[in-house]
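Researcher: Structure for this, please.
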Amino acid sequence: MAVKVRQKRQKKKRDDILAEFVYNRGSVSEMKTEKTKETGEQKMKAYDYVVIGAGLYGAVFAREAVKKGKKVLVIDKRSNIAGNVYTEQVEGIHVHKYGAHIFHTNNKKVWDYVTSFAEFNRFTNSPVANYKGELYSLPFNMYTFNKMWGVVTPEEAAAKIEEQRQAAGITEPKNLEEQAISLVGTDIYEKLIKGYTQKQWGRPCTELPSFIIRRLPVRLTFDNNYFNALYQGIPNGGYTQMVANMLQGVEVRLGVNYLANKAELDALADRVIYTGPIDAYFDYSLGTLQYRSVRFETETLACPNYQGNAVINYTDAETPYTRIIEHKHFEFGSTEPGTKTVISREYSAEWKPGDEPYYPVNDAQNGALYEQYKALADAEGKVLFGGRLGEYKYYDMDRVIESALARVRAELAK
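Model: Predicted structure, token format:
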């Protein structure tokens, strides 16, 4: 049974899988809803759950609820499913419209779950850093240390890092700058971390918490696989196909703004699963949580290969963008290079209303404000908050799926 999505205006051309979808946009009053039955003062709702957001969290919750016989409606304000992992075809290339997404996990249950909806290629993330024309291997490994200092052995590299850490007088890192220097030394921090990080977050590294960079891999080997994960890859056919498979048999309505039609949509179901920004849900009544946003400049070039790698970070402060993505290189094992390629330049920016929120700013001020919003959310009777925006938390894709599975199973066990 195909996903059911209704729309008034003419269907746009999209990924191959999206040919199965009939997209509708319109007001809630124009939606066809099931007639409710009344018994005394009790009403039978049209749905058990209305899920707000057709990204990974919403799709997983909907999939599992439907499997248990629940009636579920998924809505999204965008005209497409899949949230920020949405991919679209351009010149036969699956373009990651909202930034590069490389699935990686150490959780076999999550890996088995996602691979039940798509076959994955074996793409390995090995980005390159470009500092004013000098190219360095990422994550930081022996290739990086050799290029930076001419060292050959792990012992020499470790000694160089320790020498620079001692010279900086760092014992207990108090911020990102000190954490970075203690991990890889001053030279690498100055060339490969400082400028890039300050562009990404819009703040000096001395004002950013140390934990942001603790997850950065540093290796005294020649392993340039960015992720320390047992399982890694990108779904063949793109993420949109994978999410469509998750939503098979689920009713989906696109182009619908939940907050603008909240009363009508809440009335359709016993429970609401909300994956949008938690502060927006409460109309920013306590203040606005801060995010970093990303702006993309995507263009099609008349050449088969622009940069030779999927991801190249520009780590100097002067280059305005943080990185360039060449999407065709995510298609691991492709034997058809073609005559064109698609690249996206990424520009990091402070979020403002109307922008897409990407990364929560995890500092003390925003953390305290989120806890106040969470108290309001916990007091909501029928609404459950989840996902990256609903929980104001940076989530890798596997953690989103893990969180959604835990939530839906707990919910259905009641």
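Researcher: Any notable elements?
Model: The chain has a mean pLDDT of 89. The two ends are 28 Å apart (CA to CA).
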